[in-house]
């Protein structure tokens, strides 16, 4: 009888450990996805600021050309 309880206890322990390991793996995957999403947002922000900077440079160049034409 005590052997049966020992086997059941061991089985329950292993089941709880397997669930815990599964939750841990799921959490790590979610954190990795979050990190990847954050990196994508940062890359998009850098691309936008680069495009805006290029737009500002072209505007300055046009204004300089106009100023040169006036002088």
Question: Can you describe this structure?
Answer:
- The protein is built from one helix and no strands.
- With about 70 residues, the chain is mainly alpha-helical.
- The mean pLDDT is about 85.
Features:
1 helix, 97% helix, 71 residues
Give a brief description:
The chain is mostly helical and 71 residues long.
The residue-averaged pLDDT reads 87
- What share of residues is helical? over 70%
**Structural class by SSE content:** mainly alpha
Describe the largest sheet: none
Total beta-strand segments: 0
Low-confidence stretches: none
So how many helices? 1
The helix-strand sequence is H
Fraction of residues in β-strands? under 5%
Rg is: 31 Å
- Morphology call: rod-shaped
C-alpha end-to-end distance: 104 Å
Topology:
Layout: H1 2-70
